[in-house]
Amino acid sequence: MVFSDETTVHFRALSPAEIAFYVATYQPLDKAGAYGAQDWLGLVGIDRLEGSYFNVMGLPTHRVWPALAAFQVGGARTGLPTQ
Predict the structure, then answer these.
(1) 12, 46, 50, 64: which could form a disulfide with 8 (CB 3.0–4.6 Å)?
(2) 25-80, pLDDT tens digit by residue?
(3) Contact 55, 8 (CB under 8 A)
(4) Are 34 and 28 in contact (CB under 8 A)?
(5) Taking the domains of the chain in order of start, what are their residue ranges?
(6) What distances in angstroms separate CA 52 from CA 43, 48, 62, 63, one per listed residue?
(7) What is the dihedral of CA 74, 60, 6, 8, to 10 degrees?
(8) In DSSP terms, which residues pair with 50 in a beta bridge?
(9) What single string gives the DSSP state of each residue in 22-67?
């Protein structure tokens, strides 16, 4: 099984000082896209998301769980709902 998901992240305009602060204070080079939505830049810079926040965080759990449930992983074994 293969699937993908897409989320569009909209940032407000950031000043050079804000960008310099983020680069100096956080670790942008260890992140896809060079920012963390959960970091300072995400908190002050993201205007809106179109799609899943968890996809931006790295794992589209809203897509993974139904895929696992289709294979009866989790729900059938743990008694958790599969829908």
Answers:
(1) 50
(2) 988 888 888 888 988 999 999 999 999 888 888 888 888 888 887 776 555 555 55
(3) no
(4) yes
(5) 8-50, 59-83
(6) 16, 11, 8, 10
(7) 150
(8) 8
(9) HHHHS-GGGSGGG--TTSHHHHHHEEEEES-HHHHHT--HHHHHHH
